[in-house]
Specification:
With 556 residues, the chain is mostly beta strands. It contains 7 helices and 26 strands. The longest helix is centred in the N-terminal third of the chain and has 17 residues.
Length: 556
């Protein structure tokens, strides 16, 4: 309803006269709340600065806004509210006589499932709160696997005495389990590709979180333009799941982009992807920035049978020219990896062959060619409540890499972790990153750890922090980083942040005296494609070091 009036407002303002809108007699709700309910909201700058704001509306809208206001008061429990419109020159005033509200006189609950009642006896009855309660209880039942429940919430209203009597009856029944999964709509893809990429299995307890994440994972495969998971069919405590899919009609996708990042400057990119090359995905990527020029070719093979299980497999080839400030590196790489993912964890195992040429290096970095084969493994355990904008939970990510042929010989280990805590409206993020490189010979300088940038120390540019115990501009063998960040909502869609980063990066063993810090603030905007972040950081002990970091995505 609010969206309709907002659209009507935007249309009529092109043709009618404008009047300033005011309220009088509103005791329960502020004018700001009433403006919001009518779809009249100030910009984010007004919200942050708390400036006084009075909207102007077309006078032809006033009758519609009056009716919208009357309906709002009624659903808020003021059934006898009277609203009159007064005009004073270029002002329109809604004079509100609220009258006595509906009051909850008694609450009766019979339930064998723990539920939260969002109201108390002798409180004003608010219909939207009652409706939200019903929806939330139903969702909680389904999340816990109950689909055959008996749920009968009632609100009995006695208008004459302005009284409401609430009765809630709930029997949760037995746990519901998935009896079968049927896949429909496939034309070219094998059924196992779908079954391998959902978090649903026959015999498994029904779980809404698993269903929601299955939606996202199927879409992330990029084979489908439409996905629908129907779990409405059930017999007693058995659920029959139907997955309806619509494959893409266009298999070829071309992308070209121009952008700018604080870490890498102006960016140019081109990409091509075939979404169904004999059920595989063939992709070509070209990328150019002042620090990196890259061309890569990859082949994604879903659900490849290996060792009695199905794995997603990626074949990858890359040619890259990279500038690390103190040296340049030319890389030719061929690699292959297998991936396996469940609801809360994922791992990869891969093997690669690389040739790296080091040139235009400063005096302390050897200019030579390295040729070697390596194996690598990664593991992620993710227990956050959201992939896009988490507010609570934790994650651990690790990587292990070693060479087994050629020069150099090395072992590289990394681990990252994060903890999200909700404190009232605020969110606290604690993050750590540790790494260690062991080698018995000279290694390419790009294997050493570097720091700085949007996901590291935010007072420094991307990869501009070298080993702090070495006069040479080269990375370190040991990295230890930690961050503390406080996020707080500034408006409905914007968060402010304060942070502290500390980085230890050394060639030898950890020295607590060798560190750099960053203090700063930022703005975050959660969106459907990830969180957009802008941070400004400064080293408090070396103020000449400061940086603006722009970033989008999750933190790992």
């Amino acid at each position: 309803m609010r969206a309709f009036f907002l659209l009507l407002f935007c249309t009529i303002t092109l043709f009618g006269g404008q009047v300033a809108l005011y309220f009088e007699g509103n005791k329960t709700f502020s004018s700001e709340r009433l403006y919001k309910e009518l779809g009249l909201e100030p910009g984010w700058w007004v919200e942050i600065t708390h400036k006084k704001w009075v909207p102007k509306v077309d006078e032809k809208l006033l009758p519609s806004l009056k009716e919208e206001l009357r309906l709002f008061y009624k659903e808020q429990g003021f059934w006898d509210a009277r609203i009159r419109l007064k005009r004073q020159g270029d002002k329109a005033i809604f004079w509100i006589q609220e009258g006595p509200p509906l009051v909850i006189r008694a609450i009766s609950v019979t339930s064998d499932f723990p539920i939260r009642i969002p109201f108390k006896k002798n409180e004003r009855f608010v219909a939207p709160v009652f409706k939200r309660m019903k929806a939330q209880i139903t969702k909680q039942l389904l999340k816990k696997g109950y689909c055959s429940f008996e749920f009968n919430p009632k609100a009995y209203i006695h208008h004459k005495s302005h009284s409401v009597y609430i009765s809630i009856y709930l029997r949760k029944g037995k746990i519901c389990r998935i009896a079968s999964i049927k896949v429909k709509g496939l034309r070219t893809l094998p059924k196992r590709v779908v079954l391998d990429h959902i978090y649903l299995r026959p015999g498994q307890k029904l779980d809404l979180d698993h269903i929601e994440q299955s939606y996202k994972r199927l879409y992330s495969l990029e084979y489908f333009s439409g996905v629908r998971i129907d779990y409405s069919k059930k017999i007693k405590n058995k659920v029959f799941v139907d997955i309806w899919l619509k494959e893409r009609k266009k298999h070829h996708l071309y992308k070209a982009g121009i952008g700018y990042e604080t870490d890498r400057g102006p960016l140019l990119s081109f990409g091509y992807k075939d979404f169904n090359f004999h059920t595989y995905q063939l992709a070509l990527t070209l990328f150019h920035s002042k620090l990196e020029q890259k061309s890569a070719l990859s082949l994604f093979i879903p659900s490849l049978p290996l060792l009695g299980r199905d794995f997603d497999t990626v074949l990858f080839g890359k040619y890259a020219l990279e500038d690390f400030h103190s040296f340049k590196q030319k890389t030719i790489q061929i690699s292959s990896k297998i991936l396996q993912e469940s609801f809360s964890d994922a791992y990869t195992l891969g093997i690669g062959l690389q040739r790296q040429d080091i040139f235009d290096a400063i005096f302390c970095i050897p200019q030579k060619r390295y040729f070697y084969a390596n194996i690598f493994a990664t593991y992620l355990l993710d227990k956050r409540d959201s992939k896009l904008f988490p507010t609570k939970g934790w994650y651990i990510a690790s990587r292990l890499e070693t060479s087994f042929f050629g020069d150099p010989n090395y072992l590289k280990m990394e681990a990252k972790g994060g903890l999200y805590l909700s404190l009232s409206r605020a969110i606290v993020l604690l993050k750590a990153h540790i790494g260690q490189l062991f080698s018995s010979s000279s290694v390419p300088p790009s294997l050493f750890f570097l720091a700085g940038g949007a996901q590291s120390n935010r007072a420094y540019g991307y990869h501009t922090i070298y080993a702090l115990d070495s006069p040479c501009q080269i990375g370190g063998n040991a990295l230890n980083e930690g961050s503390v960040e406080l996020r707080y909502p500034l408006t409905k869609s914007l968060y402010g942040a304060l942070f502290w980063d500390r980085t230890y990066l050394t060639r030898s063993r950890l020295n607590l005296n060798d560190h750099v810090d960053a203090l700063g603030a930022g703005i975050l905007y959660p969106s459907t494609i990830g969180t957009l972040k802008a941070y400004m950081g400064i080293d408090p002990f070396h103020p000449s070091h400061h940086a603006l970091s722009l970033y989008i995505g999750a933190v790992f």
